Amino acid sequence: MVQTDSKCQHITVHTVTQSSPCPILSCVAKAPKHARVSLIPVADSDKSTCNQPSASNVFQDVHISARLMEEFLELARENTEKDLETCGVLGAFLEKGIYYVTTLIIPKQESTSTTCEAIKEEEFFAIQNERSLFPVGWIHTHPSQSCFMSSIDLHTHYSYQAMVPEAFAIVMAPTDVSRSYGIFRLSDPGGMRVLKECEETGFHSHGEPADGSPIYEHCSNVYTNTNLRFEIFDLR
Ligand SMILES: [Zn+2]
Ligand SMILES: [Zn+2]
């Protein structure tokens, strides 16, 4: 999947009118010969969720295209301007111990200014299954809130991380001047245990994990890679 023979970076956007198998928009980024891979910097402005290495932190690295995040923000813009959240799910393939995020699916969804819920999940699971992709995470916007994980976000994320231990959540917060995006995961076992045992719904508060770890933390194993092709399926 890694493109190595193109000399310049470009994106091809195809608009497909038929809805079956449902790619409405597909976007492929080809990158320069010499790919640049960089670790996404961890902001140090948020000490409460700062990156704490934990004993169980033996994870596969994840590579994601920074351009994928930019494209997502662009596709979310119409909602963002109306103060509505937008969410998408990320699919990756695993090669030689590294997850490469190659697919962004924007499912049908219902959103408010502080929540976003995918509906017809079977549609995006079908795309992921068809391509044998791992559901390594999800991405959503906070159109007017700061960059953090709400209690509802944590519950949504728990399902991902229970499936794939490397799963991460990207929060894009264009109005947060201190941090426009963050890549988070639940601490394991601390945060995972709190969420597993929590039966509340809606916005609520969570207690501290018993081991003293923050309930969620910045991912330290997610890298941006300029040489990654990706596809976008907008199912809305
Ligand atoms: Zn959120
Ligand atoms: Zn809860």
From TrEMBL:
Q: Which domain of life is it from?
A: Eukaryota
Q: Which SMART domains match?
A: JAB_MPN (SM00232)
Give the CDD domains listed for this entry.
MPN_AMSH_like
One GO CC term of this entry?
endosome
MPN domain location is 62-190
Q: Which GO terms describe its biological process?
A: protein K63-linked deubiquitination; proteolysis
Alphabetical list of SUPFAM superfamilies matching this protein: JAB1/MPN domain (SSF102712)
Alphabetically, the GO molecular function entries are: K63-linked deubiquitinase activity; metal ion binding; metal-dependent deubiquitinase activity
Q: Which UniProt keywords apply?
A: Hydrolase, Metal-binding, Metalloprotease, Protease, Ubl conjugation pathway, Zinc
Q: State the Pfam families in the record.
A: JAB
Q: Which cofactor does it need?
A: Zn(2+)
Q: Which family does it belong to?
A: Belongs to the peptidase M67C family.
Q: What is this protein called?
A: MPN domain-containing protein
Give the originating organism.
Dovyalis caffra
| Higher taxonomy | Eukaryota, Viridiplantae, Streptophyta, Embryophyta, Tracheophyta
